[in-house]
Amino acid sequence: MDNCHAKDIANHSTLDSDRLKELKAFDDGKAGVKGLVDAGITNLPRIFIRPPEELIEEKNIGHLQVQVPVIDLSGIQGGDKSNSVIDEIRQHPQQASEEWGFFQVINHGIPQSLLDEMIDGTHKFHEQDAEVKKQYYSRDLLRMVRYFSNGDLFESSTANWNDCLAIKLTASNQVEADELPEVCRSPVIDYASHVNKLGETLFELLSEALGLELDNLNALGCAESCYFLLHYYPPCPEPDKTQGVKRHTDFSFLTILLQDQIGGLQVLYDNQWADVPLIPGSLTVNIGDLLQIISNDRFKSAEHRVLANRIGPRVSVPCFFGGVSTPARKYGPLKELISEESPALYKEFTVPEYAQNFFSMPYDGSHRDIWKI
User: Fold this and answer.
1) Which of 90, 214, 232, 336 is deepest in the core (most CB within 10 A)?
2) What pLDDT score does 177 carry?
3) Which GO molecular function, any one, fits this protein according to its record (predicted)?
4) d(Cα 175, Cα 173) in Å, to the nearest integer?
């Protein structure tokens, strides 16, 4: 048992003792949700079943048939950072960043062949022999490469129906190639390079959308660290009783998501759930908590979730841009966006301070309110 695992259990002595035993047995097995499917289960273990009151409450939330904004970056890839493209991100008919907090990008410059290789590499990692995967299994947040199921397993009231391979990439501490699992090593390295460049481009556009200088957000280090999750959602025997990922907002400044064609991602818009459509070759982008805070609520970090499904496995690869993690860098509402009419709404904090709060609680919902003035 690693130190983080022991700390999780010690901090949650109030959990029902039987539930705690089930959580510990599941975690100690190191086989994840896929291990349960491989064992032939036909009913969900208790740790995955959502409380009845939660299911009833969710049924009262409507479902919207609307289009998530789609942004064509073909002009950007050709060197065009014109006002028309910037306005499309900022003032799309559905207000992509300010109202939705979600949009999709097409013609983003990442080859379709590489997107396919990342999807295939995610399948290959999670579908290899369980004993091979176990060498990467850990709950230690400091590890650069780790495999796990449910990052908030011991904090949350209900476990999610997915497994993850997490890869942390920072400007100051790059992962060595041989630390990455061999079955997905090559596409991960290539995709990380491409998605980092796309992230820098999007931060330039978002800077100008806020009325700032082109390099403002990149100069703040918003793109300096990337945290990849290679998600794997096996087919679920009772999808109506659980979730792929519970409703939440992202910790990041910005998230760029690659997903396969199975679907299940939904964003909360106008207090109703809207499906994020599956556009071949597209990537989904969403504003994270940190960007909402430094934009002083100009941009929106929207709640979203992933449904469990009898069909699968579904795979997805979010890349979270988490900014500079050194204690010296303080983040808060940007001074250029503060005035008498728009006073600062949040206190300053460092990324480690925000992360400590975020990862010590269930991931559901938003964690921004603790930093409000």
Assistant:
1) 232
2) 82
3) L-ascorbic acid binding
4) 7
pLDDT in tens, 228-250: 999 999 999 999 999 999 999 99
Question: What angle separates helix 185-209 from helix 112-126, to the nearest 10 degrees?
Answer: 120
Quick one: residue 270, left, alpha or beta (phi over 0 = left, psi -120 to 50 = alpha)?
Answer: left
* Low-confidence spans in the chain with pLDDT less than 50: 1, 3-13, 93-94
The pLDDT score that the predictor gives to residue 1 is 45
271 burial type by CB count under 10 A (0-12 exposed, 13-18 middle, 19+ buried): exposed
Looking at this protein, which amino acid is placed at residue 120? D
What are residue 289's phi and psi, to 5 degrees? -55, -45
Is the separation of the CB atoms in 128 and 16 below 8 Å? no
DSSP assignments along 160-191, one per residue: -S-EEEEEEEESSSPPPGGGS-GGGHHHHHHH
Out of 1.10.730.10, 3.40.50.300, 2.60.40.10, 2.60.120.330, the CATH code matching 30-371 is 2.60.120.330
Helix (H) or strand (E) holding 112: helix 112-126
* Rounded-to-integer distance, Cα 139 and Cα 153, Å: 10
Our CA angle for 343, 345, 346, nearest 5°, is 130
180: its two tokens: 């990455």
Helix (H, G, I), strand (E, B) or coil at 235: coil
| Run of H or E including 289 | helix 289-294
pLDDT in tens, 8-46: 444 444 568 899 999 999 999 999 999 999 999 999 999
